[in-house]
Design brief:
alpha/beta, 4-stranded mixed β-sheet, 28% strand
């Protein structure tokens, strides 16, 4: 029998990027009675989530986030079924090349250190690397391969989580900005919306990416994050040739071939912020040039491919490039997920599950070696 004296838990999520949408999906799945509202000031995926390189990797991660990455990557192969919507995911592996003797000498220790934490990487010689990715640079001495790694489509994944959250009953409101957090007696009681409206809630999750810091600063919480716009480049389509996600030691590169044959080139090359509040940026000629040169050096078949377009996403970086996920100690009912430092995309399933557990008061298990970041 329904207990009419028990009010539904009211949860507001600030930010309609992947972390916020994943939290909404997991919340409604765990507690169909919870009132879950996502506030997105533009449209879902309009900021860093939609601009992502959409790599799904565990190779090369900091030890502190490996457990979270392994938990997420275990779910990606079945994520389309979970969400009942396509993410464009495929597990083609990841390959990081050693292009000189020094990098090749360092590779075995790099492999050993990761394998001790359960990361399934393996050392491959130059011939094996060329079988995995024909056309790579002649200078290749070998590489490190991770069969578990892969890639997805950024906007398809955003839409999939939004669709799934809505299907389960979450309200995902676009064009609905959050102007502030309302705290009374050390407890979060509402989120102030545009037009002066307040939305009462029991819990709020701030997952607003590069805009999280300003929102929390207004209630006395300092997030040590800075905004960096990261450049992405897309070539014209080419015949299918590259299966794994390609990188190289000591080179800024993340190279993928998409389903339509276009090559997506990332690696952390900077753009320039024009207007942070409006999510406006400009690409830098030097970054475009150097990124293309790096990609063509590591993978010469790119040399004949024209650039179709470029863009950037405003990413929130922490001093150690590790995200802050957890409750705000000084304010009851307030949690945050921010500072993913350009590599949060793959973590989306596990982070959303974590945030849902926190919001519902359950014990959130982060896995071996992973702890909540302390906020001040």
């Amino acid at each position: 029998m329904l207990d009419c004296g028990v009010m539904a838990r009211r949860i507001v999520i600030v930010g309609g990027g992947l972390m916020g949408l994943s939290a909404a999906f997991h919340l409604r799945r765990a507690d169909p009675g919870a009132e879950v509202t996502v506030l997105e000031r533009e449209r879902v995926g309009a900021a860093a989530s939609g601009a992502s390189a959409a790599g799904v990797r565990v190779m090369g991660r900091d030890p502190a986030e490996r457990a979270l990455a392994l938990a997420s990557l275990a779910r990606w192969p079945d994520l389309d079924r979970e969400l009942e919507a396509p993410t464009g995911y495929r597990r083609g592996g990841g390959l990081r090349l050693a292009l000189d003797d020094a990098a090749w000498r360092a590779a075995p220790a790099w492999v050993t250190e990761q394998r001790t934490h359960g990361v399934p990487v393996e050392l491959v010689d130059a011939d094996a690397a060329r079988r995995l990715a024909p056309g790579i640079a002649e200078a290749c001495r070998g590489g490190v391969h991770c069969a578990m790694d892969g890639q997805a489509d950024a906007m398809a994944t955003v839409r999939a989580f939004a669709t799934a959250a809505r299907r389960l009953g979450a309200r995902v409101e676009e064009g609905a900005g959050a102007r502030g957090l309302v705290v009374e007696g050390g407890r979060l009681v509402a989120v102030e919306r545009d037009a002066g409206r307040r939305q009462a809630c029991d819990t709020a999750i701030v997952a607003a990416g590069a805009w999280s810091g300003a929102l929390l600063a207004a209630v006395g919480v300092r997030l040590p994050i800075e905004t960096r716009p990261l450049q992405m480049l897309l070539t014209e389509p080419a015949p299918a040739a590259l299966v794994p996600v390609l990188g190289a030691f000591d080179h800024r590169l993340s190279l993928k071939q998409l389903d339509d044959g276009a090559y997506l080139i990332g690696g952390g090359w900077p753009a320039r912020v024009i207007d942070h509040a409006a999510n406006r940026y400009e690409l830098l000629d030097e970054s475009v040039k150097e990124s293309l040169e790096t990609a063509r050096t590591v993978y010469p078949p790119l040399g004949g491919r024209a650039l179709a377009r470029g863009w950037a996403g405003l990413e929130a970086f922490t001093p150690d490039d590790l995200p802050m996920i957890g409750p705000v100690p000084a304010i009851e009912g307030l949690a945050v997920a921010a500072g993913f430092s350009g590599h949060g995309f793959a973590l989306t399933p596990a982070v959303g599950d974590l945030l849902a557990s926190l919001a519902l008061g359950a014990e959130a298990m982060l896995g071996s070696g992973l702890t909540f970041r302390h906020l001040s």
